[in-house]
Amino acid sequence: MDDQVVDEIKMHQETVASDSNSPLHLIREKELEIAGRVLAAKRQADDVVTEARKKAAELVSAAEAEGGAGAADKDAQIKAQAQSESERLLADARQEADKLQTQVNARREDAVRLVLDAVTAV
Q: Which of 50, 61, 98, 104 has CB 3.0 to 4.6 Å from 34, enough for a Cys bridge?
């Protein structure tokens, strides 16, 4: 997916060099901006999940280190808390990514309408 983003950036730079005021250029620029936001949100979601998993592993390690008769109960409790937290963080990240995708979809329709109006007006 990163190669696609790099290709889009190169195409964006070429477009800027050729004609920076055309409606198609402006639409493409907004699409690139939105695609960048979606990619950033996905990366952020991945980072959040990774961090949650790391914390869960640390909590599990701490629980195992405590030992004793109550360690198994404590371990299960900590794992459940860590799992709950990681699921919550993942859900929040997915919700943010979905919100950004909805914005992308909404703006794409407006962009298509703008292009169609520009083409039919000619």
A: 104
- The tens digit of pLDDT for each residue in 39-71 reads 888 899 899 899 989 988 888 887 777 666 566
Three-state DSSP at 68 gives: coil
Question: Phi-psi bin for 28: left (phi > 0), alpha (psi -120 to 50), beta?
Answer: alpha
At residue 110, φ and ψ (nearest 5 deg) are -65, -40
Helices vs. strands in the chain: H and E counts, helices first: 3, 0
| Residues contacting residue 100 through CB under 8 Å, at least 6 positions apart | 34, 37, 38, 41
Question: Token pair 């919550």 is at which residue?
Answer: 88
Q: Which of 48, 58, 92, 54 is nearest to 78 (CA)?
A: 58
Question: In the chain, where are the structural domains located?
Answer: 2-121
Q: Which residues contact 62 (CB under 8 A, 6 or more apart)?
A: 78
- Report CA-CA distances (Å) from 36 to 2, 29, 49, 112: 11, 11, 20, 19
